[in-house]
Predict the structure.
Amino acid sequence: MKELKAVILIFLLLMAAIILQSTLFELLNINHVRPNICLMIIIFAALQRGSMAGMLTGFTAGMLEGFFMPKFGFIALIQTIIGYMLGRFEGVLSIDTFIMKILLVIGATLAEGILRGFGHLIFGIAGPPFFIFVLNVLIECAYNAVLAPFIFFLLKIMRLFKVKGLEPV
């Protein structure tokens, strides 16, 4: 029952993040780029609970984002891969330090940008010219790096992603 409650709360948290990204953060966009809160939630889930939690959170976030954006399923695939890759570092990487939060978010944002770029090429999805694409990924890195410490702090105090093996019985 406890797990079901956590899953529902994470789903609602992802929905709130997508709504925030598409409303409030739309006012702050630069070159049609805004922060990616869902990616930060995926990073947090993957590093706290492992690959399966990272994949499920990434897939759910990607499917929810797909409802609001074109390329339905494409974002889900990318975010599932990111969740899996980061989940492999569960217990190895810690997000306790300020600089580590920023570096992880920048790395994940760059990885997401590279996967998106390859996906555009492989699936023939039209996108911006290469220079604009790279610029957009760098802008998103900056946005995410600034917000990462705050988002991770909120996720930590919410205690939705407890570390495996440390849950009270």
About this structure: Residues 2-158 form a domain with the Arp2/3 complex 21 kDa subunit ARPC3 fold (CATH 1.10.1760.20). Residues 130-158 form the longest helix (29 residues). The radius of gyration is 15 Å. The chain has one domain: 2-158.
